Amino acid sequence: MHRPGIRRILAVLCGLAAIVRSLAAEGFTPPDESLYAMGRYVYERNCLVCHGRWGDGDGELSKGMIPKPRKFSAGIFKYRSTPAGALPTDDDLIRTVRGGRANTSMPYFTQLSDREVRSVVEFIKFFSPRWRKPENFAAPVNFPDPPAWLDAEAAPRAAKGRATFALVCVPCHGEQADGKGPAVTGLKDAWGDPALPADLRSPAFRNGRTPADLFRVLTLGIHGTPMPSFAEALTPEQRWELAAFIGTLRPPETAKK
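Predicted structure:
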């Protein structure tokens, strides 16, 4: 006598499962096999010496590099516009190839054509099976526009950001924001390598230095590293204030560049 009710419950569960699969698949496209040959050609001539023949970050020039070259075979990427744990978008990867990463051995490749960059982005996806599973994909996070006070009233908000910094950032980044906090010893990334917190006084950051860049990092964290997401711990206003404070740490001689 309870079978109709059970069938209805199963139907609802199946519907929910379909919705979950649909959401998980948002942004999913399998690696483009038509670009494999060109991507391999570009990779072998520009990337292999650091990232290795098998995308394991163990290339000939990788010895002694800090941080180590990305291990594409792990399918874990630090810099992205997608939620924590999700794979980066093609635009995220293209941005890294084009612009490099400050304070690392990753150079910029402005000499490559758009098609060459697109092809090598597709090629590195073949190193990890994560790129063939829809549940690893998600749409980019929509971030709010920077608040108007960043231009007109940043000083008092940055002062509030300083207080937040003392509470949540000092253990790793240190009281002087030099990346030498008391919790630094033993910090490692997902690949087992030392994970040194950023020196926030540096003129350039690996993921951008604008307030919007800083807000993005504070919101998403840096996947594969001890840098967490503060989306739950801090309100958007607190994250903007913290970004404003970090912006004041830039050396005066580079502040207008």
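Summary: Residues 33-136 form a domain with the Cytochrome Bc1 Complex; Chain D, domain 2 fold (CATH 1.10.760.10).
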